[in-house]
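Example for tutorial group B:
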């Protein structure tokens, strides 16, 4: 399960384009501690620390620990994804949607 937390944290930081330094500032958790969660050993943080990280990333602790989102944290966009899309396909679509918004491109 430790590797799930590490991977989900890394994926979410990549998706949001957040560096360790920025997450450290948002959470008050040292960069070194955050790096220990992302490193080869990928230790899992205590509950209070996981809550701070989840809040800073605007995701649930459950998502970081299990990789599964609760119904209340899913965006309208995610809920509209077909159920047969893989997690990788969903992540790609989320990133693509983010790029469209950044460049103010809308489907017409």
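The residue assignment follows.
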């Amino acid at each position: 399960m430790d590797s799930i937390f590490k991977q989900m944290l890394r994926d979410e930081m990549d998706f949001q384009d957040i560096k360790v330094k920025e997450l450290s500032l948002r959470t008050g958790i040292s960069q070194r501690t955050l790096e220990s969660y992302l490193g080869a050993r990928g230790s899992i943080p205590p509950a209070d620390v996981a809550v701070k990280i989840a809040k800073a990333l605007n995701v649930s602790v459950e998502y970081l620990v299990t990789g599964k989102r609760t119904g209340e944290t899913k965006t309208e966009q995610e809920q509209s994804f077909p159920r047969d899309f893989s997690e990788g396909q969903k992540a790609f679509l989320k990133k693509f949607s983010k790029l469209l918004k950044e460049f103010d491109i809308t489907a017409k």
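The CA atoms of residues 24 and 93 lie 28 Å apart. Compare this with the pattern of hydrophobic and polar residues in the output above.
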